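Q: Convert this sequence to structure tokens.
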Amino acid sequence: MWSDLAAHAVTHVYLAGSALLLALVAGIPLGIASALLRPLRSPALALAGIGRTLPSLAVLMLLLPMLGVGSAPAIVALALLAAPPILIAVDAGIRAVPAAALDAALGMGMRPSQTFGRVVVPLALPVAFSGVRTAATETIASATLATFVGAGGLGDLIVRGMQTGDTVALISGAATVALLALAVELALGRAAVRIEARA
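A:
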């Protein structure tokens, strides 16, 4: 039983971690572009808002005709769900940087790239990181749906337990998902405290 649970947990973490990585790669540049390029802001935030309202299972099913079954549609769907909170938080964090800080950097003769790297990024990081934190916990929870496209993970145990009346499988799968989400939340919460202290 324990080896089965561990194997499903490893698959679950792989799916959630891969999706979060993809979401970071897409969400951070889009958030930066949204904050710095005014014409892009409204469509980017509108798209992110739509992405946040879409049901996770619906996104998975929509990707099935294009990507088939397995890990690929699960990772892409989870990344699509994780990217919006990252994009929104990065945009909000950059736009919340005080104008006085930017003026001070300009007065010190910093170039735009220096201002961005030395002033904007450190001051925006606490807010931007909150989006990563939200995306991470949501991705771990939503990864249970990957079982419906044959990607495995802890959702397999939960669904198997429901279908067969196997209470042990049901509870062990659900509890492990909850523990994983809690562990990630605690770890990222500690990281957020350190980031805020440095900012």
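The chain has eight helices and no strands.
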